[in-house]
């Protein structure tokens, strides 16, 4: 800990006032010992029984990065035991989230006797009842909130395990299952780490250990499945989150164009040719996803006046797999709640995102006519019947008038721009991974000494150069901001980035917000 830079100390003080925990945040954690919980014991016994009876097992997954990783981990591990193991991830648009009765029926017809859900299942009440009726056993492994008893044979859940496991994502739970069975390996660990990053789990306990060990292994071995999707040759949680995760999530989103089960095949594939071909297909679908979300975002922005207290945006061109991304970006750029809807034959699918301090569930909870409705604090998803649009819109505009919330002021760490060098920024790496529960702070440069500025791309973006030489980038500045006097600037709030420029590494400060005096 002696080699900690002043900047590292400052960041740590900001994130963790309790210095007795600094040792923890500055060291790589080994994995916690294998769970000895009762649910894991039961899991192990049931799998042993399946092996000795030569049962057919089906793993039922979910279509996001966590669900895909969890499915791969479970299938790969069980096959190592010699089990005949199939898998199925539903079509996001046609079938929706969670284990369905149709899947149970089909699995039964095909002679499967044991269903194992991963990253879902806890809420699949009807499908679980049907499985029981058909005499099939079900093991639910999931990390979503469990608020009532689950009607199945065995539940494996973080809350039923030792406390270090409470932050696990779906793939993390699946990986612990593999450890219990003794069929875990470095590859499956990397998938569990990847999924922990993608599912935005709190970076404490086993989740922190999984991410650290996964990233170390990725950079040591350049594992093909991961690096076929990454652009950098050295990765951390941020680059995995920006380069790899969106590609994997794109497949589930565009289920009208691609089958997410092929991503599990990609991760299970061992020959270079399959990895290469499938990897390219995944990247291609993501390119389409990007084009679609750019288009939708443009359309959505045109429909925002800017003075609304809440945005409700619908357009015939909207794709229901992308609405969450668009709602998120509109919410972030205006710092106001946003609902984006897509219409299909049955009705409307909608996604809501809200700023910190605004609770979507509280806000929407009073509406009595949702067909489906779920979510948490700052994100919700729901569906409406076709004829309910106007009624719902009325509700939203009435509700926003009575709903009070205070937008949390960004808690910033004030720093001197002279403190930001390549060396000091890199020294922060010992604190990685950052993530929920240990968020990389927003830096604030108060009264920046601006030496020069440079507008580019038709004054869409601006580069401020400070006396210290630090370059501060302001992307997508508004017209109002463009016209304001530089002398009125009180501070820059933003983050730091290390960029490669003509082979040289350079520190950039990326401005998220300009505060005026
Ligand atoms: Mn998950």
UniProtKB/TrEMBL annotation:
<dbReference type="Pfam" id="PF02272">
    <property type="entry name" value="DHHA1"/>
</dbReference>
<dbReference type="Pfam" id="PF01368">
    <property type="entry name" value="DHH"/>
</dbReference>
<dbReference type="InterPro" id="IPR041122">
    <property type="entry name" value="RecJ_OB"/>
</dbReference>
<keyword id="KW-0540">Nuclease</keyword>
<dbReference type="InterPro" id="IPR003156">
    <property type="entry name" value="DHHA1_dom"/>
</dbReference>
<dbReference type="InterPro" id="IPR051673">
    <property type="entry name" value="SSDNA_exonuclease_RecJ"/>
</dbReference>
<keyword id="KW-0378">Hydrolase</keyword>
<feature type="domain" description="RecJ OB">
    <location>
        <begin position="415"/>
        <end position="512"/>
    </location>
</feature>
<feature type="domain" description="DDH">
    <location>
        <begin position="56"/>
        <end position="179"/>
    </location>
</feature>
<protein>
    <recommendedName>
        <fullName>Single-stranded-DNA-specific exonuclease RecJ</fullName>
    </recommendedName>
</protein>
<keyword id="KW-0269">Exonuclease</keyword>
<dbReference type="InterPro" id="IPR001667">
    <property type="entry name" value="DDH_dom"/>
</dbReference>
<dbReference type="InterPro" id="IPR038763">
    <property type="entry name" value="DHH_sf"/>
</dbReference>
<dbReference type="Pfam" id="PF17768">
    <property type="entry name" value="RecJ_OB"/>
</dbReference>
<feature type="domain" description="DHHA1">
    <location>
        <begin position="315"/>
        <end position="401"/>
    </location>
</feature>
<comment type="similarity">
    <text>Belongs to the RecJ family.</text>
</comment>
